[in-house]
Task: inverse folding
């Protein structure tokens, strides 16, 4: 897999090696994967919400059993 950027720098794609050869001859250029990650992949990710961890009750408290 290779990351390619169009001549006008509007499109960044991840393509197979064979497709990359064809795009290179059409004028596209190779770019680092880090650029693809920040411009394409990470845009679709939402901010991670903080999850509150619930404490588990012991069996005796869960079933209201007192010894």
Result:
């Amino acid at each position: 897999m290779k990351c390619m950027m169009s001549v006008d720098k509007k499109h960044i794609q991840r393509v197979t090696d064979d497709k990359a050869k064809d795009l290179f001859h059409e004028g596209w250029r190779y770019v680092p994967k880090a650029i693809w990650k920040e411009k394409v992949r990470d845009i679709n990710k939402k901010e991670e919400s903080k999850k509150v961890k619930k404490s588990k009750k012991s069996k005796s408290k869960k079933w209201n059993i007192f010894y």
Notes: The radius of gyration is 25 Å. The chain has a mean pLDDT of 81.
